[in-house]
Protein: BolA/IbaG family iron-sulfur metabolism protein
Amino acid sequence: MLDADFVRSRILEALPGSEVEVQDTTGTGDHFEARVISPDFAGKAMVQQHQLVYAPLQQWLKSGELHALALKTYSPEQWKKLGNR
Structure:
């Protein structure tokens, strides 16, 4: 069983300097939701942004230990345009 801190740390290792929030959506340690704001996303399509987040988690996705990860990804500019700081 995984926890939100583990998922968050894996994402941060792959995307240093990002803002990452992760929540366990079911309490079972295998369904999570993450919001990631990263300068690495600038100029990339959403599917490319998601690929960057999924990459460091492939081992757990393939094994089924991480069953679902819903993503909301933004570059800092996109996040700012939405009125968030």
Summary: The first helix runs from residue 4 to 14. Strands lie at 19-24, 31-37, 68-74.
